[in-house]
Specification:
The complex is a heterodimer of chains A (211) and B (84). Chain A has one domain: Peroxisomal Thiolase, Chain A, domain 1 (3-Layer(aba) Sandwich), CATH 3.40.47.10. Chain A is 34% helix and 24% strand. Chain A has 7 helices and 8 strands, in the order E-E-E-H-H-E-H-H-H-E-H-E-E-E-H. In chain A, strands 1, 2, 3, 4, 5, 6, 7 and 8 form an 8-stranded mixed β-sheet that branches. The radius of gyration of chain A is 17 Å and the shape is globular. In chain B, 52% of the residues lie in helices and 0% in strands. Chain B has helices spanning 2-15, 41-55, 65-68, 72-82. The mean pLDDT of chain B is 90. The chains are: A alpha+beta (211), B mainly alpha (84). The A-B interface holds A 38, 49, 51-53, 110-114, 117 and B 16-19, 38, 42-43, 45-46, 49, 52-53.
């Protein structure tokens, strides 16, 4: 039976970016996540000015996807066959708070449209989809902690019901204290140097690979 | 007018997060949208907020936006003619 396998994965945390478990970039002296993401984005030079207009959590997910998809594995698939399922614990809480602050004071009431548009976590999925032209199933889920069982089951179900043939899955989270991204690319191709079973156990193992 | 144009360039770069862009990179007659600076619809809304917040000017008729926001120069002329 045809199965999804994980072909590549990316971690971003603690001011480091790893691809398939190997360090791809680090900036230990970054003063904040914002600072780190800007530096990292310039390092990879994808030349996409829209990046700077995104809120920080979208930047985090977008940058992870840029690193993950460097070899353009999606070109082998139709746009409608490629999906994205991402999760986190904080939704877009920091951006929500930023927007709320802009409308808190009746005498200084200037709601920012560009902040408002990012007050939904699935906007990050939209940014990634626009960048690569994905038009398949997508969803963003909120869990207290990374839920590999759910992500594996949900994506496998989409695959088995022929809703998609390839998918980005994972976890992109940001709180006032911390941030982390773990995303992977899974597809049904057989000939690949790396092909990890798309199971909860393997996804959990990969998630915990970088501390 | 020149001072206002320079100020607008700085404000637009900051407000719209035009990373790596300097005021001198923007020609005041370049179109802000389309082939010029390549701004989008959300940027247009930010420019409306900027006019209100920084200059106390409200655009009464949305249809005027296309003309007002054609370039930095047209924005500056609009501000100049509406400032009390």
């Amino acid at each position: 039976m045809e199965q999804l396998t994980i072909k590549t994965y990316c971690h971003i945390k603690n001011n480091r970016i790893c691809i398939n478990g190997e360090l791809a970039f680090e900036y230990p002296e970054a003063s904040s996540m914002h600072d780190f993401l800007k530096k990292a984005f310039k390092h990879f030079k994808p030349g996409y000015a829209k990046f700077y207009k995104m809120d920080d959590i979208s930047k985090l997910g977008f940058l992870a996807s840029e690193v993950l998809l460097q070899d353009k594995p999606y070109l082998a698939y139709q746009p409608e066959d490629t999906g994205i399922v991402i999760s986190n614990s904080q939704s877009t809480l920091l951006t929500d708070a930023e927007f709320q602050a802009s409308i808190q004071d009746d005498t200084n009431f200037y709601p920012s449209p560009s902040v408002f548009v990012y007050t939904l976590p699935n906007i990050m999925i939209g940014e990634i989809s626009i960048r690569h032209g994905f038009r398949g199933e997508n969803a963003f889920y909120i869990f207290e902690n990374f839920n590999a069982n759910f992500i594996a089951d949900y994506i496998n179900q989409l695959f088995l019901s022929h809703k998609l043939k390839a998918c980005i899955g994972g976890w992109v989270d940001q709180s006032s204290e911390n941030y982390e991204a773990f995303i992977y690319w899974a597809d049904n191709k057989k000939d690949a140097p790396l092909a990890i079973e798309h199971t909860a156990k393997e996804i959990e193992r990969l998630y915990n690979l970088i501390r | 007018m020149e001072e206002l144009i320079q100020k607008l360039k700085v404000q637009i770069i900051e407000q719209l997060n035009l990373e790596d862009m300097e005021p001198d990179d923007i020609d005041e007659t370049d179109p802000l949208f389309g082939n010029g600076l390549g701004l989008d619809s959300i940027d247009a809304l930010e420019l409306i907020v900027l006019l209100e917040k920084e200059y106390g000017i409200k655009i009464e008729n949305p249809k005027d936006g296309q003309k007002i926001f054609y370039s930095i120069k047209s924005m500056a002329e609009f501000i100049k003619s509406h400032q009390k």
